[in-house]
Design a protein that fits this description.
Its main location: membrane. Helix 4 runs parallel beside helix 8, helix 4 packs parallel to helix 12 and helix 6 packs antiparallel against helix 7. The protein is mostly helical. The N terminus and C terminus are likely disordered. It is 80% helix and 0% strand. The protein folds into two domains: 223 residues, no CATH class; 236 residues, no CATH class. The chain is built from 18 helices and no strands.
Length: 509
């Protein structure tokens, strides 16, 4: 801490519970670049000092981000748990709607909202603070428009589910739950731009506090809706939608009221309606990139249902995917950190800092993933008993654990590299990589191994892990070969083009 104080950075601004203000963030960023460029220090001294600086910043970003994603996940999961106590049909309906139809909206909205990470992060690093509010509003407009066609998918969910082979009884119940989630679509449309707007400024703690408080309110309201007012599936879904709107409104109120956002939020601006096409292209690429990743392992479950003895297969795979999903939340926190740090440093014109933070966050996430993988292997015979007491399912989970461990390690690296891609604006490139690796290689290879060679669930998962491995290697190679000086120039050019255009139109590569 003394080294920071001697450099003119106020100590309270570096405490984990107080995210840095714009001034403090600039000082820390400049200090990191100066340290990496200081040839009077030995290589080891520069590395040690720079690592201390980066870890202080990384901790402030990653820890609250992980909490936010975990809590948001628990909000949806708690609704399923409540519905499960109503009966098997209600559990099946809420699970099908949440993990199937709702995932469509979540993947698209989260992906499109990630464009704000790139642009707000780079603008923040370049000290063009007034642009952040316009970017957030522009993204919200686009996502609201995108929510309209998605809404029709929700409205016609019952015939779509029947077309996909679900029984009329389950499809009807799932559709009833889905109708209650229609307001959630537009909550997503507002939430993700707001969330990325805050993250790009390293403001993450307020979102964590808001999510924690909302979870408590959500549990209370869901209990009232189901057990006091007897509103059933539709009521439970409406409460879930309401909880997401509570998060949206609370975060927006924070933006309007907080001193930290005075420079970046200057009120509603008609400029948000200009340059929508250029913004849409980057948003669409982001949506494709992240949605394909979000849906990838869901397809694994669908394919597994076609195997012999699907009940045990689906149970074991669902348990493994649930464990992987919880651990994945940690990687998602590092994904957000990588995106913020890279976009801020590139926007600030600090190529060495951008490259260094990529190394630090990737290495940290990888080490944590390896630890989780080792623990998973050690506890492979006990893991399934958290979810079920069946010995057959336990043996199946134990048999899949080596593949689960590999998936955990890969998920310690791949999401971070995706965060780097978002920070630099490489969404289009990564979208093409995802299509090729996931859907041209991974899924066909998994189906071939699972059915042709009778390897069952192990074959399907092994093939899909092959696609993930290929994608990770490509992104790693691309990141290693990146010329960070050129990335700084691209960011500067993009922001200057936006700033110098009378209509405020965004020029996207």
């Amino acid at each position: 801490m003394d080294s920071f104080q001697s450099s003119g950075v106020n100590e309270p601004l570096l405490q984990p519970k107080s995210p840095p203000s714009p001034v403090a963030a600039e000082q820390v960023s400049s200090l990191l670049e100066e340290t990496l460029s200081d040839t009077t220090l030995s290589w080891w001294s520069r590395l040690r000092k720079a690592t201390v600086i980066e870890y202080k910043y990384l901790y402030q970003l990653a820890a609250p981000a992980i909490i936010v994603y975990l809590l948001n996940n628990v909000i949806s999961m708690s609704t399923q748990i409540f519905c499960g106590h109503l009966g098997n049909l209600e559990l099946a309906a809420s699970s099908l709607s949440n993990n199937g139809i709702q995932l469509l909206a979540y993947g698209i909205m989260l992906g499109m909202g990630s464009a704000v990470e790139t642009l707000c992060g780079q603008a923040y690093g370049a000290h063009k603070y007034d642009m952040l509010g316009v970017y957030m509003q522009r993204s919200t407009i686009l996502l609201m428009i995108t929510g309209i066609p998605i809404m029709f998918v929700y409205i016609f969910s019952e015939p779509l589910l029947i077309l996909l082979g679900e029984s009329k009884r389950v499809a009807s119940a799932a559709a009833l739950f889905t109708y209650g989630l229609i307001p959630q679509i537009f909550a997503y449309a507002a939430n993700f731009p707001i969330q990325k707007f805050l993250q790009s400024q390293s403001i993450v703690n307020p979102s964590a506090y808001i999510s924690a408080a909302t979870l408590l309110v959500h549990i209370l309201f869901t209990w009232l809706a189901l057990y006091v007012f007897d509103w059933g599936l539709f009521g439970a879904a409406l409460v879930l939608s309401l909880s997401w709107w509570i998060i949206v409104v609370a975060q927006f109120v924070y933006i309007v009221m907080a001193e930290r956002c005075k420079k970046t939020w200057t009120g509603f601006n008609l400029m948000a309606f200009s340059g929508l096409w250029g913004f849409f292209k980057l948003s669409a690429a982001s949506a494709v990139m992240l949605a394909l990743e979000t849906w990838y392992f869901q397809i694994l479950i669908l394919i597994a249902g076609l195997l012999p003895d699907p009940e045990v297969t689906l149970d074991s795979l669902s348990i493994c995917c649930t464990i992987l999903g919880w651990i994945f939340m940690v990687a998602v926190g590092f994904n957000a950190s990588a995106s913020v740090r890279v976009s801020n440093e590139v926007g600030a014109g600090h190529p060495k800092s951008a490259a260094f933070c990529v190394v630090v966050v990737t290495a940290t996430s990888f080490i944590i993933a390896v630890v989780f993988a080792i623990v998973t292997v050690i506890l492979r015979h006990q893991l399934s008993y958290i979810f079920t007491s069946g010995e057959v399912v336990s043996d199946a989970v134990s048999d899949l654990t080596p593949l689960l461990a590999i998936a955990i390690v890969l998920n310690g690296v791949q999401p971070v590299l995706s965060g780097v891609a978002v920070g630099c604006g490489w969404q289009s490139f990564v979208a093409y990589v995802n299509v090729g690796c996931y859907y041209v290689v991974g899924i066909p290879l998994g189906a071939f191994l699972g059915f042709k060679y009778n390897l069952g669930a192990k074959g399907i998962w092994a093939g899909m892990l092959g696609g993930t491995t290929m994608q990770t290697i490509i992104l790693l190679w691309f990141t290693i070969r990146t010329d960070w000086n050129k990335e700084v120039e691209k960011a500067r050019s993009r922001l200057d083009q936006w700033h110098n255009t009378k209509e405020g139109q965004l020029m996207v590569e």
